[in-house]
Amino acid sequence: MRVEECRGSCxxxxxxxxxxxxxGEPTADGVLEHARAxxxxxxxxxxxxxxxxxxxxxxxxxxxxxxxLEKQLQWRDGLPEDDSLAVFIGIERGPISVRLxxxxxxxxxxxASVHYITSRIPVERGRLFDERYWRAYMxxxxxxxxxxxxxxxxxxxxxxxxxxxxxxxxxxxxxREMEREIDARFFSxxxxxxxxxxxLASKTAIELHCATRTPRIDMVEMGIxxxxxxxxxxxxxxxxxxGNVAWAYDLIQSQGAGRQALxxxxxxxxxxxxxxxxxx
Length: 280
Ligand SMILES: [Zn+2]
Ligand SMILES: [Zn+2]
Prior knowledge:
By secondary structure, the protein is α/β, with parallel strands linked by helices. The longest helix has 16 residues, at 131-146. It has a single domain, classed as TIM Barrel. It has a 7-stranded parallel beta sheet with strand order 1-2-3-4-5-6-7. The radius of gyration is 18 Å and the shape is globular. Helices cover 32% and strands 14% of the residues. It binds zinc ion (ZN) (2 copies). One zinc ion (ZN) binds at residues 60, 92, 113, 115, 154-155, 159.
């Protein structure tokens, strides 16, 4: 299905899903099966693509490269025509721009997530509320939003890079609680406003990250009023989580915002050129 055909009437999107090509469990075919079962109209596979991560000790490293991306694009282009589900291939990079020079390995869009900060600020285990560190994070996020390579900024207030500060043994929910506290202490509404202004200026979407339910509701409300476009992502790493996007859609609806508040990848002009053997 062409994306422009579904404007206004089309159903659910999930624009952030991982497969076994990076650190997810599902196969790409498994993702499609579950996307259909959940009634999605658009699904995007966005595996980790970050050759710089290892250098910064981040977990989401270069588990995916241009050859793997090329393979995934070929898989997608070989799918039978399907009017009910549009499939996009994106990548999730870190805060540093990646080289995407192979014409046969051009993703449909790029998510950038601040999985680590590039300024080397020493951190201590157990010392989570380090103002200097979180200021550096906030600056890094502002830089990423303005980066022309970036279409979507992933989880700006979730899955925060706090690995070096955590004491061992925290649960998923405890880490989310820590993030809410970091958000409340440091991520001022002024910062969100700056993020949103930069997003508007560079036409970057901000992700509604369903796995962590971030950004917080009042800031999403402000973004909607400012005209920011939001991208919906489950950040699924297993098949059951594909299409877990109800939080984002409920939030958009509760704000009285329509689908114009939601970003989707540009329609693939190359889909028409495929028979001519051309890619953009
Ligand atoms: Zn991420
Ligand atoms: Zn992800």
